[in-house]
Design brief:
Number of helices: 10
Structural class: alpha/beta
Strand content: 5-15%
Strand order of the largest sheet: 1-2-3-5-4-6-7-8-9
Number of strands: 9
Largest sheet: 9 strands, mixed
Radius of gyration: 18 Å
Helix content: 25-40%
Distance between the termini: 29 Å
Length: 318
């Protein structure tokens, strides 16, 4: 079995379970992807493969991993390409860009390769957050070997005003066609969000402690942080959401959550998807913002407990 090379893991800021480890794995197109694992030696129920959201990275999952390992799971997660310490595709490393949305599936294949090399406990479960929910749904269609799945604020539609929806695809396509696909989406720039926006009025969470958790990490390790997304990223994201919307839901037990104060993803796209998911359920959280796993304790704890119960319950039904 292939031996993975150790990678940095900044445990002092992650606040995750003890004995976390990180490794490098190569994607099929040669990108170096960082993966992280917690709780491998104490797992009772298997491994949760956590797909992070846009701008997120391994250390930001530390507190979530701590909560999930307490529920009896190992947690395997990663930095997507152009995130955290994984390889970039542009010379400006902070800019979030993707050439094709299918490139993220190369990262998925890499983390599965890492899971097999590390012999992480089975069965495996998928937890996809935001952009990771979009990537995760595609991975399920492609046969991701998990017993059940859960999604928090999955990006199955990008929240926009009606006029923005009407023009977003042609405008972003044109930007790429004329060589401007690397330029920022209007309203985005080269500045990191948490370093340049106060807690008051933020779009991430109602919990000031969790916001400061991210802010503290951003100040301590700027190398992990990213900034705005490009026109090409948005165009590819919109196309992927459109393609996924035309596909029937996979036969995998599912639970999904979204805040009704989410300003980044389209809640209706989530409710439509789950309405047609034969063994799926959807809960909308009153008042919650986008990052449900960084939300106030009563929300975060309830979601963690429901996800754990859902995963354990799916094993009883197998």
């Amino acid at each position: 079995m292939h031996v993975l090379q150790p990678a940095p893991l900044f445990s002092e800021i992650a606040e995750g379970p003890e004995n976390g480890m990180a490794f490098w794995v190569k994607s099929d197109d040669g990108m170096r992807i960082r993966v992280g694992i917690w709780g491998q030696d104490i797992s009772k129920h298997g491994t949760i493969v956590l797909f992070p959201g846009r701008t997120e990275y391994i250390e930001l999952q530390g507190r979530t991993a701590r909560d999930l390992t307490r529920q009896g799971f190992a947690v395997l997660t990663m930095d997507w390409r152009v995130h955290g310490l994984s390889d970039r595709v542009l010379s400006i490393r902070e800019t979030l860009h993707v050439n094709r949305y299918s490139d993220y599936q190369l990262d998925v294949a890499a983390i599965i390769k890492a899971a097999k090399s590390l012999d992480v406990p089975e069965p495996w479960f998928l937890l996809g957050n935001s952009m990771g929910g979009c990537i995760g749904l595609r991975a399920l269609f492609d046969g991701l070997p998990v017993a059940a799945c859960a999604f928090t604020a999955p990006m199955w539609g990008v929240k926009m005003l009606s006029l923005q929806k009407a023009v977003a695809l042609p405008v972003t396509w044109t930007a790429h066609a004329i060589g401007r696909g690397h330029s920022y989406i209007p309203g985005h720039n080269g500045k990191n969000y948490v370093l340049n926006n106060p807690f008051e009025g933020n779009r991430i969470t109602r919990d000031e402690g969790m916001y400061n958790f991210w802010l503290k990490q951003a100040r301590a390790k700027p190398c992990l942080q990213t900034a705005g997304s490009t026109m090409r990223w948005l165009h590819q994201s919109l196309l992927e959401c459109r393609r996924l919307a035309k596909m029937s839901s996979p036969d995998v037990p599912c639970v999904a959550f979204c805040g009704d104060n989410d300003g980044l993803v389209e809640v209706n796209a989530i409710s439509r998807r789950l309405a047609g998911w034969s063994n799926g359920s959807f809960e909308q959280i009153p008042g919650a913002k986008h990052a449900l796993l960084l939300e106030v304790p009563e929300v975060r704890n309830r979601i963690i407990a429901k996800i754990a119960g859902h995963f354990i319950g799916s094993l009883r039904e197998m």
